[in-house]
Specification:
The chain is mostly helical. The protein has 6 helices and no strands.
Protein backbone atom coordinates (compact mmCIF):
# COMPACT_ATOMS: atom_id res chain seq x y z
CA UNK A 1 0.00 0.00 0.00
CA UNK A 2 1.34 3.39 -0.95
CA UNK A 3 1.55 6.00 1.77
CA UNK A 4 -0.83 8.35 -0.06
CA UNK A 5 -3.50 5.65 -0.36
CA UNK A 6 -4.28 5.73 3.38
CA UNK A 7 -7.77 7.23 3.71
CA UNK A 8 -10.07 8.29 6.49
CA UNK A 9 -11.71 4.88 6.09
CA UNK A 10 -8.39 3.29 6.99
CA UNK A 11 -8.32 5.55 10.06
CA UNK A 12 -11.84 4.43 10.99
CA UNK A 13 -10.91 0.78 10.48
CA UNK A 14 -7.81 1.13 12.63
CA UNK A 15 -9.82 2.68 15.46
CA UNK A 16 -12.40 -0.11 15.13
CA UNK A 17 -9.61 -2.70 15.39
CA UNK A 18 -8.12 -0.98 18.41
CA UNK A 19 -11.50 -1.13 20.14
CA UNK A 20 -12.03 -4.75 19.10
CA UNK A 21 -8.60 -6.12 19.98
CA UNK A 22 -6.47 -3.58 21.76
CA UNK A 23 -8.65 -3.26 24.82
CA UNK A 24 -8.83 -6.95 25.76
CA UNK A 25 -6.26 -8.64 23.45
CA UNK A 26 -9.01 -10.85 22.08
CA UNK A 27 -10.82 -10.95 18.77
CA UNK A 28 -14.28 -12.28 19.41
CA UNK A 29 -16.00 -13.60 16.25
CA UNK A 30 -19.05 -11.37 16.86
CA UNK A 31 -16.83 -8.29 17.15
CA UNK A 32 -14.85 -9.28 14.03
CA UNK A 33 -18.03 -9.69 11.97
CA UNK A 34 -19.43 -6.39 13.24
CA UNK A 35 -16.21 -4.50 12.48
CA UNK A 36 -16.23 -5.80 8.90
CA UNK A 37 -19.94 -4.92 8.50
CA UNK A 38 -19.48 -1.41 9.94
CA UNK A 39 -16.46 -0.76 7.76
CA UNK A 40 -18.38 -1.95 4.71
CA UNK A 41 -21.21 0.40 5.68
CA UNK A 42 -18.80 3.35 6.05
CA UNK A 43 -17.02 2.64 2.73
CA UNK A 44 -20.18 1.69 0.78
CA UNK A 45 -20.51 4.97 -1.13
CA UNK A 46 -16.84 5.29 -1.97
CA UNK A 47 -14.71 3.91 -4.80
CA UNK A 48 -12.85 1.78 -2.26
CA UNK A 49 -13.29 -1.90 -1.49
CA UNK A 50 -14.04 -2.35 2.21
CA UNK A 51 -12.40 -5.78 2.29
CA UNK A 52 -9.20 -4.31 0.85
CA UNK A 53 -9.32 -1.47 3.38
CA UNK A 54 -9.82 -4.03 6.19
CA UNK A 55 -6.86 -6.14 4.99
CA UNK A 56 -4.61 -3.07 4.73
CA UNK A 57 -5.63 -1.92 8.20
CA UNK A 58 -4.99 -5.40 9.63
CA UNK A 59 -1.51 -5.42 8.09
CA UNK A 60 -0.78 -1.99 9.52
CA UNK A 61 -2.19 -3.01 12.91
CA UNK A 62 0.21 -5.94 13.27
CA UNK A 63 3.26 -4.32 11.70
CA UNK A 64 3.50 -0.82 13.18
CA UNK A 65 3.59 0.91 16.51
CA UNK A 66 -0.15 0.48 16.99
CA UNK A 67 -0.56 3.02 19.76
CA UNK A 68 1.01 5.80 17.69
CA UNK A 69 -0.96 4.83 14.59
CA UNK A 70 -4.26 4.76 16.50
CA UNK A 71 -3.54 8.16 18.06
CA UNK A 72 -2.69 9.52 14.63
CA UNK A 73 -5.93 8.13 13.18
CA UNK A 74 -7.98 9.61 16.02
CA UNK A 75 -6.39 13.02 15.43
CA UNK A 76 -6.79 12.76 11.66
CA UNK A 77 -10.50 11.98 11.91
CA UNK A 78 -10.97 14.82 14.39
CA UNK A 79 -9.61 17.23 11.79
CA UNK A 80 -11.43 15.72 8.80
CA UNK A 81 -14.93 14.84 9.98
CA UNK A 82 -17.92 16.69 11.37
CA UNK A 83 -19.04 16.29 14.99
CA UNK A 84 -22.05 14.32 13.74
CA UNK A 85 -19.85 11.91 11.78
CA UNK A 86 -17.55 11.45 14.77
CA UNK A 87 -20.56 10.77 17.00
CA UNK A 88 -21.60 7.96 14.63
CA UNK A 89 -18.11 6.45 14.91
CA UNK A 90 -18.40 6.63 18.73
CA UNK A 91 -21.68 4.75 18.54
CA UNK A 92 -20.00 2.16 16.31
CA UNK A 93 -17.25 1.75 18.92
CA UNK A 94 -19.86 1.19 21.64
CA UNK A 95 -21.56 -1.42 19.44
CA UNK A 96 -18.23 -3.15 18.77
CA UNK A 97 -17.45 -3.22 22.49
CA UNK A 98 -20.84 -4.79 23.25
CA UNK A 99 -20.83 -7.26 20.32
CA UNK A 100 -19.39 -10.14 22.36
CA UNK A 101 -21.92 -9.63 25.15
CA UNK A 102 -19.34 -8.18 27.54
CA UNK A 103 -18.13 -4.60 27.81
CA UNK A 104 -14.75 -4.44 29.51
CA UNK A 105 -13.59 -1.42 31.52
CA UNK A 106 -10.72 -1.02 29.03
CA UNK A 107 -13.24 -0.73 26.19
CA UNK A 108 -15.19 1.92 28.09
CA UNK A 109 -11.96 3.81 28.78
CA UNK A 110 -10.88 3.61 25.13
CA UNK A 111 -14.22 5.00 23.93
CA UNK A 112 -14.15 7.73 26.60
CA UNK A 113 -10.60 8.70 25.57
CA UNK A 114 -11.62 8.91 21.90
CA UNK A 115 -14.70 10.98 22.80
CA UNK A 116 -12.57 13.40 24.84
CA UNK A 117 -10.03 13.72 22.03
CA UNK A 118 -12.87 14.57 19.64
CA UNK A 119 -14.45 17.06 22.05
CA UNK A 120 -17.53 14.86 22.46
CA UNK A 121 -17.45 14.38 26.22
CA UNK A 122 -21.23 14.85 26.40
CA UNK A 123 -21.62 11.53 24.60
CA UNK A 124 -19.95 9.63 27.44
CA UNK A 125 -22.97 9.99 29.71
CA UNK A 126 -23.85 6.32 29.31
CA UNK A 127 -26.93 7.19 27.28
CA UNK A 128 -25.97 6.06 23.79
CA UNK A 129 -29.26 7.48 22.51
CA UNK A 130 -27.56 10.87 22.68
CA UNK A 131 -25.36 9.75 19.82
CA UNK A 132 -27.20 10.40 16.61
Amino acid sequence: MQANSWTRYHDIGLIYLACMHGTDDDIDPAEYILVKELLQKRVADEALNSNKVFEEVMLMYVSQSVSEMVNSSIASLSDGMSQEELAVILKDLADIAAADGLVYPEEIQFIADVAREWGLEEYISGNRNNIS
